[in-house]
Design goal:
The protein is mostly helical. The protein is built from three helices and no strands. The longest helix has 11 residues.
Length: about 50
């Protein structure tokens, strides 16, 4: 392996669990709750009402 191959690491994120979608796509309430907990945006999910 070259030095570059030892430095770069790739990983994947499931499409339905990607917090980056909060800034780039329409987000449902359920996805907002999931993403919010991922980035600790909201401390309590009950702040978002259906």
């Amino acid at each position: 392996m070259s030095q570059l191959q030892k430095i770069v690491a790739l990983s994947t994120t499931e499409a339905d669990k990607n917090p980056a979608d909060m800034l780039t796509k329409v987000v449902t309430i359920d996805k907002l709750k999931l993403c919010s907990s991922s980035v600790e945006f909201l401390k309590e999910s009950r702040n978002i009402e259906k």
